Amino acid sequence: MTGTVSARALELARRRVPFVHARVVRAQAPASAHPGDEAIVHGDGTIDGFVGGQCAEGSVRTAALGALHGGGPLLLRVLPAGEDAFPDAPGAQVVVNPCLSGGALEIFLEPVLPPPLVEVAGDTPIAEAFLTLAQVLGYATARSLPGGRPAEHTAAVVVAGQGHGDAESVRAALDADVPYIALVASRRRGSALFDELGLDEREKARVHSPAGLDIGARTAPEIALSILAEVVEAVRARPPMPPPAPPVEAVDPVCGMTVTVTPGTPHLTTDDGELWFCGTGCRDRFAAGLVG
């Protein structure tokens, strides 16, 4: 990535914010973009960087938000009206953009989603083994202090203090509504801890204790593996960090293009309500028609 876009991407990754990386891979004159131009598309539709003029940018914005919301990586081909388009294929999408002045573009859109975050409370051998295995899977990991509130969007909390701060860590994870909570303890000790905390039946059901799948584990690494398997099952069943809600889309009444509505999208207020346009050209032509 170019310096500015790369720095912005690193900042978003550090903050665990989902975004789409857009890179121009092919451009046909007289397109204003060039191969290698790139941008970041945020969850609200705003764009940092450059992948084409206003008309191309609108097509990129709409396709990128679709990719961010479960569509996966996408090769987008933006064509001026009248160009012959090749058929859609898995992983590719063709958009005919009537307001494009000329020059086809191919842009690769790659959603960048933060890996699941798992917090571990404790410094026992099981805790250490779990951290090592979770990192092998590419999960983000962090240690938490007893009673410390888990970070936002934490997918799982594994309480492995074996008596040191376990009650405080379980209570903090429950209060933060963490999707998966595991307590490394025997059934007897786990039950006693639940009673100590005064948990109701709903709260007890949210804490996996004894932690992990029953695979006959005995050693610390084996127990850690059984817990990690249960974490994977929970994460896959419930994505830990869904992308932001998609912005509203509208159809340009002049060219028929689908437009993603953002604060900067050209629009007009008419007797029939708000109308949104792909660019100022379509808006001005529509306004001229109303006046005439």
UniProtKB/TrEMBL annotation:
Give the superkingdom in one word. Bacteria
Query: Where in this chain does the record put each XdhC- CoxI domain?
Result: 13-77
InterPro entries, alphabetized: MoCofactor_Util/Proc (IPR052698), XdhC_CoxI (IPR003777), XdhC_Rossmann_dom (IPR027051)
Pfam families of this UniProt entry?
Answer: XdhC_C, XdhC_CoxI
Ranges for domain XdhC Rossmann come to: 120-231
Protein name listed in UniProt? XdhC family protein
Q: What's the source species for this entry?
A: Streptomyces spinosisporus
